[in-house]
Amino acid sequence: MGSLTDTILPILREASEAILEIYSDASRFLTELKSDDSPLTAADQKSNQIIIKRLATAFPTIPVISEESKQISFEERVHFQQYFLVDPLDGTKEFIKRNGEFTINIAYMDGAHPVGGFLYVPCKGLAYVAEKGSGAFRINSTNEITELRTKPFYLMQAGIKVVASRSHRDPRTENVISKLQQPEIISVGSALKFLLIADGKAEFYPRYGPTMEWDTAAAQCILEEAGGSVIQTEKLSPLIYNKPDLRNPHFMAFGTLMDPELLQIISE
Q1: Phi/psi of residue 47, each to 5°?
Q2: Which residues of 16-39 are buried (b: 16+ CB within 10 A; e: fewer)?
Q3: Of the candidates 113, 147, 181, which is a domain's last residue?
Q4: Are the beta carbons of 116 and 133 closer than 8 angstroms?
Q5: Are the beta carbons of 63 and 77 closer than 8 angstroms?
Q6: What is the sign of the dihedral through the CA atoms of 170, 175, 180 and 182?
Q7: What is the pLDDT of residue 138?
Q8: DSSP-assigned letter for residue 249
Q9: Residue 262 belongs to a domain with what CATH number?
Q10: CB 62 within 8 A of CB 82
Q11: 134 with 156, same domain?
């Protein structure tokens, strides 16, 4: 493992412990709505506090963009070269539903690109990590390490496994899925969709619903290091970050695709 992983893994585990403490205590299971009507829980806030504090201690000169912190203006963050992009609890709706399908996401960024991806699945005690050029790995609670590799596949082969959001499905996503050959649909929340592809347990994830940069950056690095890709649907180029608007464009994530020329056709 790289030095970034060695430093960030304990931060993920500490934030996970705080989240699970609240998850298991009904008296602390409070929810409020943010200005965009998305839910916010005490777990989001506690995880954010831990991550921001620990990153500031370990990397005092590197700024942090986090979903649950006061947003930094583009005029300021446009000058960031290295920075962290954080979602302290990705899948808050799944947390509220108590289905366990939520993650902690920390990405280390170099300009517009994620070069370190660090995700944690609190309910499973699993970390997924990658540093650019060094591969992607799953680490369990006893520090056993498993390398992640995507599966080679053809887009139009019968029965490919397609991951889709459990809470955000829309007609454009359904239109893309309808063009595939008898796909097997796997519904799961949060960044777990990317991890299934990185782990070779699914092949394709089209996303037309709303996402933010902190939802995807860490997972993108992990998937790319495992042999997959995350591309903008219109430009067919990798997602980029620290844009004036932190919302992502529509994208497709996939494993080792053997017929990429079909992406343009399927996305039309």
Answers
A1: -60, -40
A2: bebbeebbeeeeeeeeeeeeeeee
A3: 147
A4: no
A5: yes
A6: positive
A7: 98
A8: P
A9: 3.40.190.80
A10: yes
A11: no
Residue given tokens 């799953």 in the structure block: 138
Distance CA 145, CA 38 (A): 35
Residue whose structure tokens are 């409020």: 32
Q: How many CB atoms lie within 10 A of CB 223?
A: 31
Statement to judge: residues 141 and 220 lie in one domain: no
Please give the structure tokens belonging to residue 187. 């519904």
* CA atoms of 137 and 195, how far apart (whole Å): 10
The predicted structure's pLDDT at residue 90? 95
Are residues 134 and 48 located together in one domain of the fold?
yes
Residue 218 token pair: 């860490």
Angle between helices 3-23 and 42-58 (to 10 degrees): 160
**Residue 145, SS3?**
strand
- Torsion angles phi and psi, residue 108, rounded to 5: -100, 125
Q: What is the pTM of this model?
A: 0.94
d(CA 58, CA 126): 22
Task: Determine the pLDDT at residue 26.
Answer: 62
Neighbours of 67 (CB within 10 A): 23
With pLDDT > 90 as the criterion, what percentage of the chain qualifies? Answer: 79
Residues 33 and 73 in one domain: yes
Phi, psi of 242 (to 5 degrees): 60, 45
Average pLDDT over residues 13-22: 96
- Assess whether 67 and 176 both reside in one domain: no
Distance CA 72, CA 198 (A): 31
User: What is the DSSP pairing of strand 152-153 with strand 229-232?
Assistant: unpaired
| Cβ atoms of residues 38 and 92 within 8 Å | yes
